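Entry, Tuesday afternoon. Goal for today is a structural model of the target with copper (II) ion bound, before we commit to ordering more compound. Inputs were pasted exactly as handed over by J.K., no edits. I checked the ligand SMILES twice against the vendor sheet because last time a stereocentre got dropped in transcription.
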Amino acid sequence: MNRFATIAIAVVALAALPLGCERGSTTPAPAAETVSLSAPIEFSIPVKGMHCEGCEGAICGKVEKIEGVTAVKASHTDETVVVTAPPEQRAAIEETIKKLGYKLD
Ligand SMILES: [Cu+2]
């Protein structure tokens, strides 16, 4: 009777082990990598110093790589960069444009 109980416990313990492993391996974290950003909104940033399509392209290329940015439209004739992005990313976007050598109003 006693020996049977010991075996039963051992079987339960063995059965629980791979189950625990499996639970551990299904948890790894795609969720942990998604930073929580607000919903993107469209806003326009006045930018001085763009004088051709090359300038527009330089700004678009850099800004669209910023996390959360879903659309960028630069216009040297309007002197604006219209961005669709989470509002908390605005500072990073403006900083990126400044680093490219353009002036913000
Ligand atoms: Cu240019």
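Confidence is low (pLDDT under 50) at residues 16-27.
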